[in-house]
Amino acid sequence: MSEKKRILVVEDDDVLRIMTERQLQHLGYLATTSNDGAAALQALKQAECVLILMDVQMPIMDGLEATRAIRRDEAKRSARRVPIVAMTAHPNKDKCFEAGMDDFLFKPITLERLAATISKWLAP
Questions:
Q1: In order of start, what are the domains of the chain with their CATH numbers?
Q2: Is the pTM of this model over 0.85?
Q3: Dist. CA 67–CA 80, nearest whole Å
C-alpha cells in the first residue's frame, strides 16, 4: 500500500480504542481516534477517512446519533458514502441499520475479524 488509508475509530473505552488503533496499524492503516460521536464529527472535518469503526453506546453523542449526523452531512454535500461499521457487545441490528450503519464487529474484536471486515468494505 503506497499511501496508507485512514480509518476513524470511535470508542469511549480507552483500552479498546488503543487496541483497535494498534490492530489497524499492524494491518497497515492510519488510525484517527475519537472517544465519542461529537468528537468523531469534528475528526471527519479534519481528515478524510475510508472507513469508520463506531462504538454504539457512548456518552455525549452515541454511535447511532453520530451515524445519522454523518449520513445527513454526506447527503447534504452529495459526498461519497463512507462505510460505518458498528463495534458493539450488545447489537441491535435494526437500530444500527436504520441509523445508517453498514456492518457489525462484535466485541471483543480479533485481528482476524477486523482484517476480514476491512477487506469486505475496502476491496478494490
A1: 6-114 (3.40.50.2300)
A2: yes
A3: 14
